[in-house]
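Posting this for the archive.
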Amino acid sequence: MVYTSEGVKLQKHHLCFLRHFQLNSPDLFDMYSAGIVLLQIAIPTLRSQAALKNFNLEMRTYGYDLNKWRDSTRMKSNFQILDSDSGRGWDLASKLISKRSSERRRRLSAASALRHPYFLLGGDQAAAVLSKFSFSTK
């Protein structure tokens, strides 16, 4: 029998679920979604369904390497917000979007993302960055 640290007995199906969860890291899938949202906030041209569909197709083509996508995409995008402050936003987005099985670059977990330098801006810096965001849907 296997027990949790609280003394709860785990059944075989619980163990299978936990092992499946560990192997597949669904939390990393959620971080991919967070990366998409970050990109859509910073790059208005990614907000339409057609643009997002095209983006996902291109990302598969480039092995989920955001830098390769940026160098090759025909999409007219302004990366100014992500490039500001020494490119911290771009670095974070790249690490959230990266392929989760990549050995040289693993997708960030939620905890790691929150420790990323992008979130370590001072109050004045954060206000300056946020003032550049465009929240229109067009």
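The mean pLDDT is 76. The chain has seven helices and two strands.
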